[in-house]
Amino acid sequence: MTASALSPRLRACRSALFLPASNPRAIAKARTLAADMVILDCEDAVKAEDKQAARRAAVEAAEEGFGGRIAAIRINPPDQPWHEADVAAVAVSAAEYVVLPKVESADAVERVARATGKKVLAMIETPAGVLAAASIASASAGLIAGTNDLAAELGIPPAAGRSGLAHSLQMIVLAARAAGAAVFDGVYNLLDDHEELAAQCREGRAYGFDGKTLIHPGQIDIANRLFGPDEEEVAAARRLIAAASGGAERFEGRMVEAMHVAQAEALLAKARV
Prior knowledge:
Elements: H1 8-11, E1 15-20, H2 24-30, E2 37-41, H3 51-64, E3 70-74, H4 83-91, E4 97-100, H5 106-116, E5 119-124, H6 127-131, H7 133-138, E6 142-145, H8 147-154, H9 166-179, E7 182-185, H10 194-207, E8 211-214, H11 220-227, H12 231-243, E9 249-251, E10 254-256, H13 258-270
Parallel strand pairs: 1-2, 1-8, 2-3, 3-4, 4-5, 5-6, 6-7, 7-8
Antiparallel strand pairs: 9-10
């Protein structure tokens, strides 16, 4: 995967909503929501007895689509009995991406990519995954920080916050950027604590994440707002692009060059303007 191969639409994704593929009401509701990506989950959100039905429902939902928004299917990992059937189903589906959980090697990504013919969003959920993130990113369209599993694997207490994850999160972003891949922050579990969700979104954007994975519709607007630029950022980006004439030059009291123009253009793409 190279930067030139990265979909601008994926890089502009601010919100990625996980929903159980076994829940038809959640799928129907997702078509009315403003999430930039819908991830139809066949893994953690689905009970063992519902796996087969969820797989069929995910394929059907991807076929109908989500009003032009990105559709992805999260499959079960290779060590689970449902993995091969998931891979076969995704291969004939209309999903744009396959989400592979608990990735610890580029080989795992490459096997699923070959078998499905889909681009892979790799979830980094273990210490081994973090340490291999650079090679994993090189084989992936994007990385997703699986913060719940990662925190548990690292032995971080549930009430300890995210400070113990900071180094891992920065390594995940660094790996994605070096490979030219997209990168998404992990979920926030408390459904009614919008203030802390907003704080995590601000922190995630400051780390360099493109957007945030979500588990509830009520989280979408916050992620879209905080991972998208505000009005002043948009106005400044437009002024910079309009003023740029090539090479290094002075702009509003600072030196800018082609890199800053490219950043401004990417910012406007994320702002949907």
